[in-house]
Design a protein that fits this description.
The complex is a heterodimer of chains A (128) and B (353). Chain A has 128 residues and is an alpha/beta fold. Chain A contains 5 helices and 5 strands, in the order βαβαβαβαβα. Chain A has one domain: Rossmann fold. Classes of the chains: A alpha/beta (128), B alpha+beta (353).
């Protein structure tokens, strides 16, 4: 089902959730890179080039998830990378999106706890 | 004053004072005297606020100025603690029509404010709990996935990682539920002799791993001579874990320093035990410091539940102790926890039930 060898960047401040997503995605044929906050994620993108998709937790301290999202979506080259938001509750993100018309909404939105089948189906559709 | 007015004055369900233009209290009713003490020769703000200057917006002065009735809400310090009061100031014109005195009436609305605070708290608690639980469930899901797929693939190492994940998240659920319980009801302290060094070791356990994950140096300083205290072991552990987690978070969000450290130390100070949790994280400004122990106040955005420090403070107080914050923005924070060694009641004998 998965597109072989596509690279997913997993951004979450919770190590257990990074490890979980990493394992599930690798088991389904994806390459994975992880980052613990928005700044680290930006560094990864700069260092290793654009991934095929990002899963992003936006409820991280210091709003670094929202900042990373904005940096990705406001850049012409980076904008085409689909971002799937994975979050507990975060009205801050919804407020941010609705307050800025220039920033497009995310390609996917999943709330925790994650339904694995939905996650895989969504990623497969977005990277193909 | 006629008897009927005297009774009204003294028994009205509020504090009543009569003040002159310099805010000297000329007369006060019985309720006022009972809760605030002697007023002779003292000014309104000295008695109500324990400070040398009047309120910025003083309704009594306003009533003197325009001859109208003015209202406001204030927090005042009575003999039995802080009170929220609804204040009205009404001018008393003399025979020639000039205002020489103002009647100031303060109604105690502390219980209404507390109730309101509790209702708001419940709403916040629910959203904060549900957020926390979603994250923890995801962690449990992760562990389950690793264990199941590890068994299918016959990969013992993966099973081990998965099981550790399950254990970590179960532990977190446990501490969160404990926090909620501490919040939800006044749990009775289970007093027992507690070896301070053991207490410190137990509190450090979950923190050591967390600090390591974030590259923070955690130091448990030797508790030599700290001996034993009479306390609720689980409650004190929860208190320390809450403070330590706060310190770790303060370091995590600080990008100004190369190396971060958190330390835990215990010292005997006479008949008190002093526990010190220090970090060189972002530190607190005056506002954060003032509100740090308020319920649901969190400076950590969606990350914080606003329960941790509130509960830590509650536990310290239940033990007859206190927590002091020594903090500077940019420099770091020290929490100084003072706990009486012989338990909340001084030298209370062991409780048997």
């Amino acid at each position: 089902m998965a597109e072989q060898g596509k690279t997913i960047l997993i951004v979450d401040d919770e190590p257990d959730i990074r490890e979980y997503l990493e394992t599930v995605l690798q088991d389904n044929g994806y390459r994975t890179i992880t980052a613990g906050d928005g700044q680290e994620a930006l560094d990864v993108v700069e260092r290793e080039g654009l991934p095929d998709l990002v899963t992003l937790d936006v409820s991280m301290p210091e709003k670094s998830g929202i900042r990373f999202y904005r940096d990705m979506k406001e850049d012409d080259a980076r904008r085409r990378v689909p971002i799937v938001i994975v979050t507990g509750v975060d009205q801050a993100f919804e407020r941010f999106i609705s307050s800025r018309r220039s920033v497009p909404p995310p390609e996917g939105y999943l709330s925790k706890p994650i339904e694995q089948d939905r996650l895989l189906e969504m990623i497969a559709r977005l990277v193909s | 004053m006629e008897d009927v007015f005297r009774v009204l004055f003294d028994e009205a369900p509020c504090y009543i004072t009569i003040q002159d233009a310099e805010l000297n209290i000329i007369e006060a009713n019985r309720r006022f005297r009972e809760d605030f003490g002697e007023f002779a020769g003292r000014k309104c703000f000295e008695v109500y606020k324990h400070r040398p200057e009047p309120c910025l917006e003083c309704v009594v002065r306003q009533a003197f100025a325009d001859g109208l009735v003015h209202h406001t809400e204030e927090v005042v310090s009575s003999r039995s603690g802080r009170k929220n009061v609804l204040v009205s100031a009404a001018p008393l014109p003399g025979p020639d029509g000039t205002i020489s005195r103002v009647v100031e009436m303060s109604t105690d609305i502390t219980s209404i404010r507390q109730l309101q605070g509790k209702l708001e708290s419940i709403g916040l608690l629910i959203s904060s709990i549900s957020h926390g639980i979603k994250g923890l469930l995801t962690g449990l899901d992760g562990g389950r996935y690793l264990v199941n797929s590890g068994m299918q693939k016959n990969d013992p190492q993966r099973i081990q990682r998965g099981w550790a994940m399950v254990e970590r998240n179960v532990e977190r659920i446990r501490s969160q539920v404990l926090n909620i319980l501490y919040y939800a009801k006044d749990r009775r302290l289970q007093l027992e002799p507690v070896a301070v060094s053991e207490l410190l070791a137990e509190a450090s356990e979950p923190i050591t791993a967390k600090a390591q994950r974030h590259g923070i140096h955690f130091q448990l300083k030797e508790a030599t001579g700290a001996g034993e205290i009479r306390a609720d072991r689980n409650a004190l552990r929860a208190l320390l874990v809450n403070l330590l987690e706060n310190s770790i978070d303060a370091c995590r969000v600080d990008d100004k320093k190369q190396q971060h450290q958190v330390s835990l130390e215990a010292k005997r100070r006479g008949d008190h035990l002093l526990l010190v949790v220090s970090d060189n994280g972002i530190g607190m400004d005056a506002e954060t410091r003032d509100k740090a122990f308020s319920l649901f106040y969190s400076s950590k955005g969606t990350e914080g539940t606003g329960l941790g420090l509130f509960i830590a403070d509650k536990i310290a107080r239940a033990h007859g102790g206190s927590i002091k914050i020594d903090s500077e923005l940019g420099r770091g924070t020290s929490f100084l926890v003072k706990i009486p060694c012989r338990g909340p009641g001084g030298e209370s004998p062991p409780t048997r039930r």
